[in-house]
Amino acid sequence: MKIIDGGITSPKGYTAAGIHAGIKKVKKDLALIYSEKPASIAGAFTQNVVRAAPVIWDEKIVKGYKKAHAILINSGNANACTGITGEEDCEQMAALTATALGGQITAEQVCVCSTGVIGVPLPMETIKKGIADIIPELKGDTAHADDAAMAILTTDTFKKEIAIEIEVAGKPVTIAGIAKGSGMIHPDMATMLSFIVTDASLSSELLQKMVGNSIADSYNMISVDGDTSTNDTVLVMANGASETEEITEDSSSHEIFKEAFDAVHTYLAKAIVRDGEGAGKFIEANIKGTASKEDARIIAKSIITSNLVKTAFFGEDANWGRILCAAGYSGVSFDPANVSLAISSDAGSITLLTEGAPVSFDEKYALSILQEKEITISMELGEGVSQATAWGCDLSYEYVKINGAYRT
Amino acid sequence: MKIIDGGITSPKGYTAAGIHAGIKKVKKDLALIYSEKPASIAGAFTQNVVRAAPVIWDEKIVKGYKKAHAILINSGNANACTGITGEEDCEQMAALTATALGGQITAEQVCVCSTGVIGVPLPMETIKKGIADIIPELKGDTAHADDAAMAILTTDTFKKEIAIEIEVAGKPVTIAGIAKGSGMIHPDMATMLSFIVTDASLSSELLQKMVGNSIADSYNMISVDGDTSTNDTVLVMANGASETEEITEDSSSHEIFKEAFDAVHTYLAKAIVRDGEGAGKFIEANIKGTASKEDARIIAKSIITSNLVKTAFFGEDANWGRILCAAGYSGVSFDPANVSLAISSDAGSITLLTEGAPVSFDEKYALSILQEKEITISMELGEGVSQATAWGCDLSYEYVKINGAYRT
């Protein structure tokens, strides 16, 4: 398994494009990912009962059709809370893209994703023109992969993409992904769009199973602000263009593929948090010694979601009581008398609590650890042998600023 | 039922004091509330599994002894996550106070509350001297009631107190309360201390039942930051000094007392939110038309807890999609197509969503509504006839500032 240069077009048989259609004022706002061969498709969607029109559309494709050719994504407008009009607009986007791509492609082979402001109808004339404009732009090179990665962003400050190469029975197989954050990010499918494509050959059923496993330890373990979006979507395509043997659960290549597949999801999930709205620090919470993995997940997520923990890290304040407090109200039962807690970064490591007893520490040394950009919280609960990791960021003035005037 | 001038000493038979003992640098930090007659005592405590030493102590008194004479409160240090030392310190505070009060009072008749930083041992020498100093200060006048109300505050910017007078069989009975917020405030006993005293005569059992009912619609319906504290405590004393008949569940006066009792709790809960850390706006969420009251409570709390909703109000932005989104991820099932939504304030009222369809609105008029200090969100779900109200505040730069450097 090796990370290679490149983006969403690195696996064989995929082209991509990203353009400025005019939904946003200046930045790119329309992306298309296309596989000439029909690809197995799988996905995971927001658990919010308020679901944007494209979420409903894509789930229908993933569950009902299992093969797709393309994913069309617009940023700048979420097409959420837009009623029947929104559903019709979404279907029209798929139909127009299918027609423009030509050949035998149907609307039901085109997934659609939207991200941006909620409750405003899509500017369909702009989007129609954008679809006509983007088709001729489709290319398989890195520049066009980057354009697509840029066009799906909203308040993100950098593009999130990765490509990993593995060998399946001696032949190269590539998995690549792009994603966007960066607000409305919270466990239960953190608010995000993530698109992963591979030239491996897999059934949509196996792909779906692998997506479910993968998101539990990646996107579902990050939080920027505790808000679960109406549009969260992960879509995965596998087109078999590598012409390698089909990967099944019994294949010798299953493990290596799974490892790379999980690595792509985890990389993108962490990239989303690194670019959390207003985030200045990246916080990893490693929870060990719980009675079950689910307990560890719940505690880890509670800690990285706590506004008081997040503001303490923003202030570079070793206020470890807030970390213990957030574990305490997570809903998981444990004995505080057995808890040990440490924080670490490139500047060093410091123990704050040993089996329930506070450890006096040097404030200057703690400050030097907290002044780093990446900080790890390590908590041991002494209740069992399970563990989990979650990723979050600090809560800054900038977060308030960005979200105090998002629409304007 | 009428609100009267006065504070925690308004009911007969109570004295109070608040002094600067030296736990904080300058402000008052030690308060005492004293009833000469033994009073029925009831309480409610944090649901956090990490519980501060005084929470454990007070719960023992409430459950085991049912009568108390005094409540000693220090601010500036929460005596939480302080291990066995913390428990010993707490017990010593009760014992010293009991001895200093003289007579037949035992340590188990003195409740103790602490609020402030977590994980730092109490400065016991300072507190011992403070206890000796505060006893001679006890008085029944308004000035001393105000001193006590001030001494329990931490980052609060104003004291929270109320006194209500009712008639029980033709004779006056008074209920009074003081409380503190103002961060680590979230449903499941919002982070706070609240002390209510009355000169009515009630058994501790009935008082306990009434506390349980009352907190469900008051403190448990507020949120400042989503963090549930280690120290949340409500304590209620009823000393019977009004010399009115005992109130039982069958009394004709039960309803009027309950109404006044609930009003005291609700007033204090709302005062805590009004003074939420960095809060510039007071947000009320009225949720109607749910299948159960619990559904309405969950949705109301989800909305007022959402960082994205809170920052939108800070930015005076009518970003109603975030409100619907927060309802959608609350865990309650509903059909978004039936939801109607409006916001209102002293400047007017505006409908944003009617049965799932966005209503176009005048942005200038919406801004004029949102520029007010108190804003009401009204949501109708069309799933039933239940309703609930929750109270929250906006999320401001000031919140981040206060919590980025709490310990320093």
Give an overview in words.
Two copies of one chain form a homodimer. With 408 residues, chain A is α+β, with helices and mostly antiparallel strands. Chain A has two domains: 2-274, L-amino peptidase D-ALA esterase/amidase; 282-404, ArgJ beta chain, C-terminal domain (Ubiquitin-like (UB roll)). Chain A is 32% helix and 28% strand. Chain A is built from eleven helices and 16 strands. Chain A has helices spanning 53-64, 83-101, 124-134, 142-151, 204-216, 254-274, 293-305, 307-314, 320-328, 363-370, 397-404; strands spanning 2-4, 14-19, 30-45, 67-77, 110-117, 160-168, 171-180, 193-198, 222-223, 233-238, 282-290, 340-345, 348-354, 357-358, 374-380, 386-393. In chain A, strands 1, 2, 3, 4, 5, 6, 7, 8 and 10 form a nine-stranded mixed sheet that branches. Chain A has a seven-stranded mixed sheet with strand order 9-16-11-15-12-13-14, with helices on both faces. In chain A, strand 13 (348-354) and strand 14 form a beta hairpin. In chain A, helix 1 crosses helix 2, helix 5 (204-216) crosses helix 6 (254-274) and helix 7 packs across helix 9 (320-328). In chain A, 61% of the residues are buried. The mean pLDDT of chain A is 89. At the A-B interface, helix 8, helix 9, strand 14 and helix 11 of A face helix 8, helix 9, strand 14 and helix 11 of B.
